[in-house]
Amino acid sequence: MPCPDPNVINEALATGVVGDVEGGLLLLQPIVNDGPAETFAMLSALAEVAARQAVAVAPGTFFGIEVDGPDGPGTASIDVLPPSLRFAAQFINACANKDRQMAHALFWALAEPSDRDGTPALAEGVGAVFLMAVQTAREIVAQQRRLREGQ
User: What is the mean pLDDT of residues 94-98?
Assistant: First the structure.
């Protein structure tokens, strides 16, 4: 599988962490332009970042997705989420569970129709995975700062 430059992905994440999410996404665009294999590899790297905290806390655990509804935690179906957010949650979950086959199927279910029909679904899915990775990276940065400051 092709391997996008990890420095580009790290720079995009750092750009997003400091508040320039759009700039971070622009840095990732050339990887997407390189084709579906590169895009899948990039999404997998971002999913690894997004799931890092959960995997670190509970290594070897099988992860599921809980969607909070009006009746409390875990009471809603994932189908109530917007498509891009649903894709991101499912893709990150598949990667956290090391279910490469499911991650690949989810990617192609999003990418093929988007490419064929010219819809923004793939771009929106990439954006949602990126935003989740940025949020996790922000939490990691904050945690490291607290540790450095002795809090």
Answer: 92
